[in-house]
Amino acid sequence: MADNADGSTQHRNRPVQFVIRHARFVVAACVLVIVVAGVWGIGVVRDLSLGGYTDPGSEAAEVDEIVEAQFGRQVPDVVILYTPEDGRSIDRIGTDVEQNLDEIDRAVLARDPVSYWNMPPVISQGLKSFDGRSAIAVLTLVGDEDTRVKTFLDLRDARQIDGIDVQFGGFSTIADAYNTEARADLVRAETITFPILMVLLLLIFGGVTAAAVPLCIGGLSILASLAVMRLLTTFTEVSIFATNIASLVGLGMAVDYSLFVLTRFREELRRGASTEEAVYRTMSTAGRTVAFSALLLVCGFIGMLIFPQAMIRSLGFGGMAAVAVAAFVSLTALPAALVLLGPRINSLSWRKGAIDRGDARAERFWRSVAERVMRRPVVVAVAIFVFLGLLSAPIFGVALGDLDHKGLPPDAPARIATDTLFSDFPLANSGVTVMVVSDAGGQPDPALVQQFAGEMGRVDGIAAAIPSGSADDYAAIRAILTSPDRTKEALATVTRLRGLDAPDGTEIRIGGATALSQDGISSVYDTIPWMFAIMITATFVVTTAAFRSVVLSTKAIAMAMLSLAATFGVLTWVFHDGHGAGLLGITPGPLQATMSILIMAVVFGLSTDYEIFLLSRIVEAHDAGATTREAVATGAARTGRVVTAAALLLITVTAFFSLSELAMMRLVGIGVIVGLLLDATVVRMLLVPALVALMGEANWWLHPRKPLDPNLRTTDKDSQHVG
Q1: pLDDT tens digits, 404-415
Q2: pTM of the model
C-alpha cells in the first residue's frame, strides 16, 4: 500500500498491515493450526461432564456430604422398574432380578441394591405398584454427579432380563436422557444449518464467492472452539451442553462478523479503493467494531462464571470460547482471504450489477425509515416503550425451576418410566435427610431428636420420619415424602420442614434430592443480581471506550435491558403460563434455571452487539463532520440491511435448536429468536434513532469530536449521501 503524506498507513494498525503484507502465510497458518487443533478438539466429547446441575456449597449438599461420610450415600440415583412380560408374577421373577443385580460391581455402589424382593414386607409394599404388576429396585452409586451418570451408562445395558420389561428412572437416568438428546440436536442442527445458511448468504450477497467465505469462517470457528473447550477440560468441569452452545454461538457470530466485514469491504471497493486500501479501511472500522462486539458478548458470558453450578459456568466458558475464536478468525484469516480475493469477492454473481443495486436500494430504504422516525421521535419512542412494556408485563409472574423429566420428549423412555414411578410408586423417593446439630456441640439429646421426628411426621406431605443414626456432633432423621422428588408438591413439603422450629438448643439442616433442587434454584436467584452487576459494569467500560460517550454507553445498556425484559416476558407467557404450549409440544412450568441464565447472557450480549454496529457508524459519521440527525440517517442507512441480515442468519442458526426435542433447548432457541427479532428491528432501527435524535448534542457529552484517520474519511462520492 502506498504511503500517505502523513505516513499513517505505515504506522497505524500494524497488525492489519502484517495481515495485508503476509496474506498467504496468514491464511495457510490459520487453516493449518485450526484444523489440527480441531481434530484434537473433537476428542473433547469423552472428557465432557454429564453432571454439574447442583450447588456444591448449598446447605443440602453439605448435609448430604456429611451424612455420606458417616453412613454412606443416602440419595438413590437409579430406579429400575421391572414388569414381567411372560405371564409370571412379580414374586416369581425375584430370583432372576436378584441374580442380575448381584452382577453389579459393588465398587460402584454406595450400598447394596434395595428392591421389592430383599426388603421386609413393611417396606417392600412401597416398592410394588398399586396394581401389583410391577416392582422396583433402587441403586445408590458412589462418586460425584458426573461419575454417577457415567456409571449408570456402564451398567444400564447389562440390566436387561429375558421375559421382563426393564425401565430406568431416577436423576442419573434423566440427566443421561438430556445429554443423549443434546448430542443428537448438535448433529442434526449442524447438518441442516449449513445448506440453509448458504442459500441465505447467496441471496444477501448475490454471489457464490462472497456467500462461501462466511461459511468457511464459521466452520473454522467451530473447530477452534472445540479445541479451546478440550483445553478447558484440563482446568475445570465442562458440561456436554457447552458443545451445543459453543457451536451455536461460534457459527452464528462467525457468520455475522464475516457479514459485517464483507459488507464494509465491498462498500470500500465500490468507492474506488484498491484491494489493500479497502482491507485496511475495513479492518480499521468494521474490524475494530467486531473486536468491540466480541468483548461485549464476552461481557455477557462472564457474568455466568460466578454461579456455583458447574454446568452454568461451563456454558459461560463455552460461549466465551466460541466468541473469542469467531472474532480471532474474522480478524485474521478473513482479511487475509480478502486480500487474496480482492474484487473477485463479487465473482460468480448471477446478474452483473445486482449487488450494487441491492445495496443502494437497502440504503435508501433504511435512510428513509430513520428520517421518518426522526420527524416524530416522541411518538415513535412512546409507542415502542408501551409495546415493549406490554411484552415485558408477564415477567412479574416468572419462576425458575430445576431439570426434571417433563423437559424430555413425551416418548422418551426415561420420561415414561419416571411418570410410571410418580403415579404407581409415590413413596419410592429419596426423601429428606434432616441433621439435628447441637448448639453447644456434642451429640443432641436422643429424646429431643425422637420428639422432633414425631413433629416432622405430622407435617403435610411427610409419610414417615424416623431417626436414622447419630454421630459425635449430630443426629440424622430420614423422612419419606408422599410426593415424588423435585416435584412442586415435594418442594412445598421441604419448605414446610424448613419452617419448623428446631428443638431447644439445636439447629436443623436439610438435605436430600428435593432440598438440593430447592437450594440450587435459591442460589440462582441470589446470584442473578451480581451477574447483572458484572455484565453492566463490563459493558459500560467497553462501550464507553468504543464510543467515547457516556450517554451512548448508558443508552446502549438501557436498550439491552429493555430487550431482555421483553424477551423474558414472552418466554414467561409461553413456557410458564402455557399459551401455545400445546403447539410447541412443551409442558408449562417454571423456566429451566440454567438455560434462563444462558438466555440472559446471550440476549444481553447480542443487544449491545447490534447496537455497537449501528452506533459505530453514527459516531463515525459524526466524527467526520455530520450533525447528529445526519449521523443517525447515515448510520441507519449503512447498517440497516447488514444488521437485519445478521439477525436473520443468527435466527436461522438458532431456529434448529428451537426445534429440539428438549424443552430447555427450545427455551434457548425461542428466547434468542425473540430477542433478535425485537432488538434488530423495533429497538435498533426504530427506538435507537428516535432516542438519539431526541437527545441531540447531549449524545456527545464528554465525547470529543475526533476526526478519523485520513485513510478512513469518506470520499466525495460518499459525502453526498450524508444527510
Answers
A1: 788 788 888 888
A2: 0.84
